Amino acid sequence: MYPFLRLTQNIISSATAYHKSKKSGTVAGLTDTTEYRFTANVNDIDNFFEMNNGRILTLFDLGRNDFAIRTGLGKKLVQKRWGLVVAGSTIQYRKRVRLFDKVLMKTRVCAIDDKWFYMEQTMWVGGKCTCHALLRTAVTNFMTGKPIPTAQVLSSLGYDGVSLPPDEWVQVWIDADKQRPFPH
């Protein structure tokens, strides 16, 4: 089941942090890395006593939600009736996350093109990276589901003319994903 209680806590804590940072003039920028902390709980653990891979992807949703709120994008989403969508992802797992582990999640935009925001997310336990994800995401019109051009989203946030080309490893993934056939 989707962690709605944790989502509610995430929204409240992220919004509180955003308002505090706005007062102090330290709002997270679009190119900053945000950090979200949580503890692995019983609902996250599978029959092998580790965090389930599906749950990890779901918790990454909360990290992107936190990022959106802390950068001011969350406010624009509500004002303009926009939504967020994931259109592709790849993930590597390196270390198990166990029950009651204290987890630090890091989220950042690592590249932008005319249609997509590429997000990089990691989870850390005890100073070691447990998993690393790359996601192709977009801001969409909530009613139609159609993607909003990144230039329009950036402009609404005051980032006109921002360019964030992909690092080589991100570009390789983008190119490889274009070659992938989609079933018809």
Automatic annotation (TrEMBL):
The lineage of its organism: Bacteria, Pseudomonadati, Pseudomonadota, Gammaproteobacteria, Moraxellales. InterPro entries: HotDog_dom_sf (IPR029069), THEM6_lcsJ_thioesterase (IPR051490). Gene3D superfamilies: Hotdog Thioesterase. PANTHER family: PROTEIN THEM6 (PTHR12475:SF4), PTHR12475. It comes from Moraxella caprae. This is Thioesterase superfamily. It comes from the Bacteria.
